[in-house]
Amino acid sequence: MGVAMVKDLNTRNRRLWFKQLLKEFDRIAIAGSPKSGKSTLSRLAQRSRTVFHSDDFKTYLDGIRPEREDDGFDSAHLDKSPEAWSKASQDMCDAVNNHVGKCVIEGVRVPHALRKGMKVDCVVWLDEECQELRPGQRAMKKAGATVLSEWRAKHPGVPLYRAPPPIIFSDDEPDDHDDL
What we know:
Elements: H1 14-24, E1 27-32, H2 38-42, E2 50-53, H3 82-98, E3 103-106, H4 110-115, E4 122-126, H5 135-154, E5 160-162
Parallel strand pairs: 1-3, 1-4, 2-3, 4-5
């Protein structure tokens, strides 16, 4: 992803940085590789707006949509066909476009939903992983970046921000996002 395509805000604290975006934009999409902090970042907004997770639109081979439980999916039974991935992206696009009010949309499938016409006010790209990626996850990161670049070329008016690098916080650090 070319640096000229994204805006960097002048802060190294992801929490403060994201709070600025929440004040400025109503519909924020968070995209990036697996294990880059998308779900963690989206949790900062869950008290003040609806949060859509791309994982919530996955389906099992039996057609049932799994319940979201801290990213705990039975991945061996997920439908990983191209048709299922495409349907998940379209379902996410439809849900977001039909939503009235402020929202955050996060997940590796966000670029694909954008390509299908999902409407947002800005996009956040997280390109630094918090954990080492497996080969399949690296491929997902590359595919997401490619799709986002293609979408971006057709939507230059939508701000695209590169998130600051992740900062690892300790479990005993106070949660400072009560003011959102």
